User: Fold these one by one.
Assistant:
Number 1:
Amino acid sequence: MNFEYNETQAMIAQSIRDFAEQNIRPNIMEWDEAQTFPVDLFKKLGEMGFMGVLVPEELGGSGLGYHEYITIVEEISKVDPSIGLSVAAHN
């Protein structure tokens, strides 16, 4: 089995990694201390196509496969596992 990213997966991994570093990491402690759920973050993730990853495009999803889904959850979880778990649960 080949575990190397293809071009699309590598692009998705870099994109979500950059997003997580810019939008999640700086806010982790604030969200934790305030005990808030970052609704706006999930709206941004949806706008970028990172929610509904497995849902077909004709139904409003991204129409991607499990490899891409796992890549998204994995890269977010490297920055904040709780956000990664929420993304996984809502995909």
Number 2:
Amino acid sequence: MAILVGTTLSVAQELVPGQGTQLKVVGDTFEDVSWKYVYNLPKSTRNLDDDVRVPTGIAGNNRWYEGVKRGQPDIIRRVPTPAGGLPGSYGALLLQSRQTGIPGKPSYEMQQDDFIADVHERVDGWIPVSRGPSAVVRVFLPRTAKWENRSGPHFGFRVAVTHSIPSTGLFSFGSRTKSQTYWPGFFIDFKSKTDGNRRHDYAQLRLRGDAEGDDFLGLDIATTGWWTLGISCTRDGQIHYYAHPGVEPLTARDHLASTYPYGFRAEYFKTFFFNICSGDDGRTLSTPWIIDDPAVFVFPRHAARTAQRDRRGSGRQISAP
């Protein structure tokens, strides 16, 4: 059953991520055995010390780049696809960090790195939500014994979307507006049995966010291994969250929630990205995260409205935009 938070949602407004046409110029399969990432260290940490260290990191195929706000993960490496992955997949991507804060200056607090997909430059602009953009990824969750022994967020999968706010300033007149970016999505939280009175380790899928901008529980994670996560945007400005264990395409049964995060109505989809979190003690590696086949899907302009009325679609491909 779908969990609706902060809104009353009709069936007609939901959109299963992965429907429409995949934008082949963005995302990745990691099947190229020569896949590489150029780190250009040290990483950027504008959020902590206002230091943007250039040049920033970038993938050899120009599909990924370092976020200048927090910097990139310490380990970005193509690895063999773990068992149970997508059929025909031989390569996936490992993301892991030790220094999630300022390089060489541990904060001993939770910090995070950003690994960002280049979408808006490769498709020559932002994607209007009227085209039903969605992002889908497969994520491999290791056995809990391999997780960093720390309660809190360990991994994030989010999108960057925009909404309009009034433009203010000396030369702003009338009803002018400007775009503001926000970042809804998923976090995977770990609850360690060594913290408090818990008898077992367990994990949860946390969603960002509700109408007040607060995170809320999506579901308890009952099994490790491969999971499929998806986020979609609809023309009414809502963000929709879907997830299930395994690598099969998402369906309407996997709907977790639909919200207007922060009370905003999304207008454009800019990109998607991953967060790798750690306790930033300078010694301990984060949980090892493996992702595969991250992808973006859209509908042609004339088909988007029809698609959002049909929850029964199964990811059928349609003509290219």
Number 3:
Amino acid sequence: MSTDIGSNGALEPETTITLTEEGEWWVATDEATGVTSQGKTRTEALENLDEAVAGYNGEGREPTDAELRNLDVDPEQNVSGESLPEEFQ
């Protein structure tokens, strides 16, 4: 996280991030949440971490139909629900 001033003029909370190089990969970990991500560059690892922490904090979004198709998922068969599928109960 940075110390950029947000849209409401407040500083974002301070966060400790551990960034290490492991072979060909950079690994970034948000110490407050324990969320970890990686990338081929430091910048990519940090950008991926930002996205992962946002998802962890519930700031994610539903995938678009195009994104689902790119993952070979039929959008018509992809339904959200309150309960787990039978296989996971």
